[in-house]
Amino acid sequence: MYTRILMPLENTRTDEAIVAHVRALAKHCGASIVLMHVADGFAARNMSALELRESEEIRKDRAYLDDVAAKLSADGFAVEAVLASGDPANEITAAALREGCDLIAMGTHGHRGMKDLIYGSVANEVRHQSFVPVLLVRERPSGGTG
Length: 146
Prior knowledge:
Layout: E1 4-8, H1 14-29, E2 32-39, H2 42-46, H3 56-74, E3 79-85, H4 88-98, E4 103-108, H5 114-119, H6 122-129, E5 134-138
Parallel strand pairs: 1-2, 1-4, 2-3, 4-5
């Protein structure tokens, strides 16, 4: 079914749900996993243009990706990690094509209305831009079971 799954991560609690889901899906399909994080802070977006050194944000993002990749690799998955900077939706959709992925699997916060207007929705933008199927997995509410 799927052979190569792109899994964007944001280093938040939301990642737990998508990592667990992709772990099971990749095992079932025998798929490889491409982890991705898009750093979108000022330093990350302007590193090249301003000839900046790697920021603390970028170092932490790289360490996080490497940690998740190591855990998945230790469990027998073929894993690669991609760290990008810029607009998250654009970078994710471009990476899916560039990396030859046949599924983008993303975690979502599940906010709506005003919160969506305030925070935006990378998942929604990816869903509209991508020619690759997009799977969205919502994080579980804190303190609840449902």
